[in-house]
Amino acid sequence: MKKILFICHGNICRSPMAEFVLKDMVKKEGKEAEFFIASAATSREEIGNPPHPGTRRILSQHGIDTKGKQATQLTRADYDKYDLLIGMDHYNIRNMERITGGDPEGKIHLLLSFAGEDKDIADPWYTNKFDATYRDVVKGCKSLLEKI
Q1: CA–CA separation, 28 vs 141, rounded Å?
Q2: Phosphotyrosine protein phosphatase I domain: from which residue to which, for each copy (predicted)?
Q3: What is the per-residue pLDDT across 104-135, written as a single tens digit (0 to 9) for each?
């Protein structure tokens, strides 16, 4: 089973979007039993909160439900638990490495790196462009799924 953890700053916009997009993709391919997919935050400020209304809206438009999701924080133990820890931007990557104590096994990646891009996924908390974030998340998740 491949265990994947998506990470962003608050775990209410980008990382839950990626979590549920990838869950939807593997479900449509009939590969749900092959994956464990989750998401977390590098910060504590949103812990316990549901995904942002903009994230829920854009996912709902694509038939994806986030029911039951609450923001959680990345821990050092997550490094050992997951095969891949995928950040949404370079700032997330730095914080992920700080929290996990480094990346000796090469598990930490930028989502769009799977699409061959060294590009951040813009945080819609600031941009309010949930459609653009969704497009980048889908691109990254499709590329990730093709590579694993």
Answers
A1: 13
A2: 2-147
A3: 999 999 999 999 999 999 999 998 999 999 99
Q: What is the pLDDT of residue 66?
A: 95
- Per-residue pLDDT tens digits for 13-59: 999 999 999 999 999 999 999 999 999 999 999 999 999 999 999 99
What order do you get walking across the sheet with 84-87 strand by strand? 35-41, 2-8, 84-87, 108-110
Annotation marks residue 135 as catalytic: no
How would DSSP label each residue in 22-49?
HHHHHHHTT-GGGEEEEEEESSSTTTTP
Locate the domains of the chain by residue range.
2-147
Pairwise CA distance, residues 112 & 5, whole Å? 15
Class of the CATH domain delimited by 2-147: alpha beta
Q: Which residue among 8, 13, 89, 136 is the active-site one?
A: 8
Q: Which of 14, 78, 89, 120 is catalytic?
A: 14
Q: Cα dist. 61→2, 112, 141 in Å?
A: 28, 23, 18
| Selected catalytic residue, list 24, 89, 120, 123 | 123
Please confirm, yes or no, whether 76 is among the known catalytic residues: no
b/e map 62-81, b = 16+ CB within 10 Å: eebebeebebbbbeeebbee
